[in-house]
Design brief:
Helix content of chain B: 40-55%
CATH architecture of chain A: 2-Layer Sandwich
Number of helices of chain B: 6
Strand content of chain A: 25-35%
Number of domains of chain A: 1
Oligomer: heterodimer
Structural class of chain A: alpha+beta
Distance between the termini of chain B: 15 Å
Radius of gyration of chain A: 14 Å
Shape of chain B: globular
Chain lengths: 108, 157
């Protein structure tokens, strides 16, 4: 994770996350993502290998079709960029949207 | 994935009779059932499941479209029906506006990736104002089918 400072206000933070929940980024997780992103003032852009979308738009996030195992780049630009990236990374990788991972599913 | 891969053109409804959310869902499920896409005696259960899912969180994503969906063992592949309402339906959409195009999607229980690919296709096109407008202007099932087939050929529509 890098944090660069272009000017006093312009903070840019970027990180890569991997989708961990078995069902991937379907609508419910995408909603959670957008909800968390919207708690921050910074712009949030999410990209896969092909496209970049607005991390605050549910329609655009649904276009990513991020399956389990997909890696996404999250880029935040604005004063609270670091906080936003941290919160989103936690949601995707640690909480995995409160959904089971493939390993959890095997245990059942 | 393309529209032609999962939309059941036989189940397209150019003008929904229902004026409310649950009625529209039931009508679209019945239409898929009539087209023989939901196996035997599953339609009531599927309609109930879609409505239950819809009550948990609206799939009315704004801009006049809703994408109610559920996973069910009745289907082996993703299957979808599309219904239009010229009067508009209250789907408790995120932007609080009425919904004019309803895309109902039933996905298999054991293939989350297929579901995501179908959703990707749907939203890629619904993003485009031109596509939403053409869909709303379609008056017959044939017009809707040709719009979707054209969209399959032209990703920018």
């Amino acid at each position: 994770m890098q944090a660069g400072q272009n000017s006093l206000e312009k903070v840019v933070c970027e990180t890569e996350v991997e989708i961990k929940n078995a069902d991937g980024l379907h609508m419910r997780p995408a909603m959670q993502f957008v909800d968390v992103a919207n708690q921050f003032d910074c712009d949030v852009t999410v990209s896969n290998s092909e496209t970049s979308v607005d991390g605050k738009s549910i329609m655009q996030m649904s276009m990513l079709a991020a399956t389990c195992g997909t890696k996404l780049k999250i880029k935040a630009e604005g004063a609270d960029a670091q906080k936003a990236v941290d919160a989103l990374q936690e949601l995707v990788e640690e909480k995995h949207f409160d959904e089971p991972t493939p390993r959890d599913q095997k245990k059942r | 994935m393309k529209f032609a891969d999962f939309v059941c053109f036989e189940a397209v409804i150019p003008e929904l009779k229902a004026g409310d959310r649950d009625g529209a869902i039931e009508e679209l499920v019945a239409s898929l059932d009539k087209a023989g896409r939901l196996g035997k005696n599953n339609s009531q259960e599927i309609a109930r499941a879609v409505i239950k899912r819809e009550k948990e969180a609206s799939t009315g994503m704004g801009k006049g479209v809703a994408v109610p969906h559920v996973k069910h063992q009745a289907v082996k592949d993703v299957v979808a029906a599309i219904g239009q309402s010229s009067a508009g339906i209250d789907f408790c959409a995120l932007d609080k506006r009425l919904v004019y195009s309803v895309i109902l999607i039933i996905s298999p229980v054991d293939n989350p990736d297929k579901h995501l690919q179908a959703m990707e296709n749907v939203f890629k096109h619904l993003q485009q104002e031109k596509f939403r407008k053409f869909l709303r202007q379609s008056r017959t099932a044939e017009q809707i089918e040709s719009l979707l087939r054209e969209a399959d050929e032209n990703p920018f529509l």
